[in-house]
Amino acid sequence: MNDRTFFNEEIETLPKEKLQALQLQRLQAIVERAYTQNEFYRRLYDEAGVKPSDIRTLEDIRKLPFLEKKTVRAAYPYGMAFARPGKEGGAVQIHATSGTTGKSVPVFATKKDIGYWSDLNARELWMTGMRPGDVLLNCYGYGMATGGFGFHYGAMAMDVMAVPMGSDARQYDRMLDFIIDFGVTAMCMTPSVGLYVGNKARERGVDFKETKLKIGLFGAEPWPWETRLKLEELFNITAFDEFGMTEFLGPGMTCECDVRDGMHAWADAFLVECIDPETGEPLPEGSDGELVWTWLSADGTAMIRYRSRDLSRTWWDERCACGRTHPKIASIKGRSDDAVSIRGLIVFPSQVEAALVKFPETGANFRIVVDKKNGLDTFELKVEVKDSALLFDPERVRVVSREMAESVKTVTGNSPKIELVATDSLPRASGGESKTASARVEDRRK
Ligand SMILES: [Zn+2]
Question: How far is CA 421 from CA 95, 226, 381, 382, in A?
Fold first, then answer.
């Protein structure tokens, strides 16, 4: 059983046209259910003049209005629910976005959802090379965000032992002890927690070649290829990218296979579109745009055409070199909310990260601060250093700052004023929902 290639071969390798037929069938069913059982959707679709019977092909999804985060928030607390607690088949678990910029968006899971969630996550863990008997150090939050529970259920479903560590990077010493002492073979966390713990491990002199660790699964914030190389070097692992959103019980939405060229998006459970964020028009396959998600397999919550604000692209080959037939999305480039325009040029935190991670002096975190002075944009970049002793050497501070500014200018076109700051002094993303990158941008012009 352990030597099979797929966790769920039948669905993971179902031919594309059969997957699309399944998608259409599930889309029709979910729209019908939303319209007949949910007041919020009935009103939304009546206003748009669209009926469930209008959905005859997958393209017909474009007739349905988008869900914006603010629309969904207005439906708080139970407006998006298919299932409430209190009767058989009802909701048994709730998660919610952090609500830092308004009301939380809740997601309700029935037992059926939890079963599907487990299967999707087990497919992903299996896809990255984990097998029954492996030990997974799970450094996502076990709380209202979904990261911790999602991978935990996936591990249960495939007989992997989960270590429910949680996302607090301050317990790095314990994380490192557990990796060594319990024979941890795989770990999952945000890339910024990964960089932090990896640097701490280096200070402590941990040699990961002496441990069983071999796989790292990172997600919940955009991260460039340079960060992947750094994480692989720090931990002596193969690093994989995964992406999910709390609103859809992510993780379990998308993950890289061993080809590591884009993430498979599970087509039996989700339908992903890519649109022009300005006009809302669909974009041709492979073009950069905003991802829009529809949850096809949902039982407890209705999420149909939800605008994610995440920028990426999608494509769907007949079959990937790994054997899977599901479509792909590229790594998340950034969020349209996080892209800052500085002196007329668009800057993404992930570009800045790519420029900084090359420096051995760079710590785990940075923060972009944009302001306006005398009518001109200012671009300040606070960068945590790995070793705070550096801050007491003015000459090195000057040299490193200048080199970093040049490196950032090369990728963004904008030259920042660098301020090196102590380790752990900046806010850090803990993962679990897709807007975490906003911890990295402070736009004082707003
Ligand atoms: Zn693949």
Answer: 35, 22, 10, 6
Return the minimum-mean-pLDDT range out of 44-58, 77-91, 152-166. Answer: 77-91
Cα 17 to middle of ligand 1, angstroms: 17
Structure-token pair, residue 362: 């760079």
Count of residues for the chain? Answer: 446
Rounded to the nearest whole angstrom, what is the distance from the C-alpha of residue 256 to the centroid of ligand 1?
Answer: 7
CA distance 13 to 411: 39
* Å from CA of 316 to ligand 1 middle: 11
In this structure, the answer to whether residues 118 and 146 fall within a common structural domain is: yes
Q: State yes or no: pLDDT of 336 exceeds 90.
A: no
pLDDT higher than threshold 50 for residue 131: yes
Output the CA 261–ligand 1 centroid distance in Å.
Answer: 8
CA distance between the termini of the chain: 56
371 and 427 assigned to the same domain: yes
438 DSSP assignment: G
Distance from residue 420's CA to the centre of ligand 1 (Å):
40
Residues 328 and 344 placed together within one structural domain of the fold: no
Domain containing 226 equals 9-15+107-332
- Give distance in angstroms: CA of 234 to centre of ligand 1: 26
Q: How many CB atoms lie within 10 A of CB 387?
A: 13
Q: Where are the beta strands (DSSP E) in 87-160?
A: 91-96, 106-110, 135-138
Domain boundary among 272, 307, 332: 332
From the CA of 319, how far away is ligand 1's center (Å)?
8
- In the chain, how many domains are there? 2
Q: For residue 312, list its beta bridge partners.
A: 289
CA of 382 to the centre of ligand 1 (A): 38
Q: pLDDT band at 101, cuts 50/70/90?
A: low
pLDDT tens-digit series, residues 234-252:
999 999 999 999 999 999 9
Residues 241 and 307 in one domain: yes
Give this prediction's pTM: 0.85
Three-state DSSP at 345 gives: strand
CATH of the domain at 367: 3.30.300.30
